[in-house]
Amino acid sequence: MLATDYLIASLRWQDLVDIILNSYILFRLYVLFRGTQVIRVVIGVGFLWILQGISRQLGLIVTSWVLQGIIALAALIIIIVFRNEIRRVIQAKNLKVLLWGWPQHGDLTPAGVIVESVYELARRRIGALIVLPSQDDLTDLVQGGVTWGGRLTKQMLISIFWPGNPVHDGAALVRNGYIERVGAILPLSNREDLPQRYGTRHRAALGLSESSDALVIVVSEERGDVTVAKDGRLHEIPDNLALNRHIRYHCQPVAGLDSSGRRQSIRLAAAALVCLLFVTGIWFRFARGLETLTTVEVPIEYMNRDQKVEILDTSVNRAVLHLTGSRALIKSLEAGQVKVLLDLSKAVVGTNTFSITADNVVLPPGIRLTRIEPAKVKVTVDRIVTKSLPIQVDWVGRLPNNLVLKKVSLHPEKAVVVGPSRVLASLSTVYTEKINLANINSSGRLSAGLVIAPATVKLAADSSSKVTIEYWLTERGG
Asked: In 3D, which of 220, 206, 244 has the Cα closest to residue 109?
């Protein structure tokens, strides 16, 4: 059987819970971070992990070592670089969104107000720079500016970029129908292939779109053109309908896929499947890589024995089992969890030879048997019979020289014993416990116990374990 087949056969319900739980956690992380730079970097790290596993299997020692170092460093970089995004998810006030809800990507910004304002600014040749954030935290990207907090209206937006206003040269951040900040400074793009007609506003919009998932709208004061920057690309907008589509798609991407949401459901189902396969692969790798070997010695237990037969002898009383499994499971083994059971329901009178196989071994889930010593055991059984045997006193020592034992009377004279037929066939007498003649100096009566040997022979239930001995002494020559 292949190692993979062994792992599947030894799969415990705890392992299934472990795989499903971690798959769901990974899927929730995808749902919470999808569309951001975080998920892209995590996917990249996942591919590196797969490559590292392949390199290890192929024996590429240096490559595997380098990839392992890169993965460890990447995990640290993710925590440092994307600390704001991670903090935003951890600090989620709504537990439902964190554990099982579907967070809205984008915001509830009224697209119509922005479109009317932008084309009014374009008609009047007033330059503008409007930022619509999405999921990425812009704290470290957007500098300066003045916190505004006013509700978004056409008049408010136009007044912000009106020439002469102290904040008209900066960018305005709009989220959830409110103007959060005005006069903000955006990072400039370093691209050298931009057309000459694009000025500082276009370069700033492109720079922010290269570093985040925000949508940036630019109004050129020289030409009155409208341009949108998204995902590191500039899109010239021909009319207000096109701008409206860009804004709605950015603010509500779920609705932007299609009206039924079928495409979104397919994507989520595919992501869930990938998470399940990924975690399952990790489980197989760890379950196989962390296996260890151990040897335990356990007593052989006999079951289903006919009450009319008795075990007389066995070739061995204990079996040595060679086991393998997860190091954690091996360390947690306790007495009584591993057993060797032999079925004697088909045993016949005489010597029987039984093979000890994996079917006779009881193991905890996740532990596998590799070898058994010995592979066979001989068990001698005999039928239980009843026999009546005469009782004989076991005298020891000597009477005084002037006395002679004349007569002995026993009550009862016989004992009924139960035992294997072969053993009872060799027994002809049951002896009492030893009685020292040196302690007797006159006729009398005493009680003595019976000595039953060997251990496989026992007194019958209705037979007394004591015998009364009456004895008569006479003087020598009398």
From this structure: 244
How far is residue 36's CA from residue 86's CA, in Å, rounded to a whole number?
11
Q: Examine the domain organization and report whether 17 and 95 are in the same domain.
A: yes
Give residue 55's pLDDT: 82
Per residue in 319-335, pLDDT tens? Answer: 999 888 777 677 777 77
Check whether residue 149 and residue 236 sit in a common domain. yes
- Residue finishing a domain among 382, 404, 419: 382
163-186 average pLDDT score: 86
Pairing of strands 376-396, 430-436: parallel
Which among 331, 351, 382 is the end of a domain? 382
- What residues contact residue 370 under an 8 Å CB cut-off, 6+ apart? 293, 322, 323, 324
Q: Are residues 199 and 155 in the same domain?
A: yes
pLDDT at 286 over 50: yes
Residues 22 and 66 in one domain: yes
**Single pTM value for the model:** 0.41
Q: Do 226 and 331 belong to one domain?
A: no
Q: Are residues 368 and 404 in the same domain?
A: no
The string of pLDDT tens digits covering residues 336-387 is: 888 999 988 888 888 899 988 888 898 887 788 888 998 899 998 888 889 9
β-sheet with 339-343: strand ranges across: 361-362, 339-343, 291-303, 318-326, 367-373
261: alpha, beta or left, given left = phi > 0 and alpha = psi -120 to 50? left
What tokens were used for 43? 């996917």
Number of folded domains in the chain?
4
Domain of 374 in residue numbering reads as 290-382
Output the pLDDT for position 161: 87
Element (H, E) at 263: helix 262-289
**Mean pLDDT of all residues in the chain?**
81
CA angle 178, 181, 186 (to 5 degrees): 125
Instruction: Determine the Cα–Cα distance for residues 453 and 434; give it in Å rounded to an integer.
Output: 14
Q: Cβ distance 354 to 368 under 8 Å?
A: no
> CA–CA separation, 323 vs 406, rounded Å?
70
Backbone angles phi, psi at 13, to 5 degrees: -65, -30
Q: 427 Cβ partners below 8 Å, 6+ apart?
A: 387, 389, 417, 457
pLDDT at 256 over 50: no
268 pLDDT more than 50: yes
In the beta sheet, which residues pair with residue 368? 324
User: 240: which residues sit within 8 A by CB, 6+ positions away?
Assistant: 115, 116, 118, 119
pLDDT at residue 97 tops 70: no
In tens, the pLDDT along 143-165 reads: 888 888 788 888 888 888 888 88
Residue type, 77: I
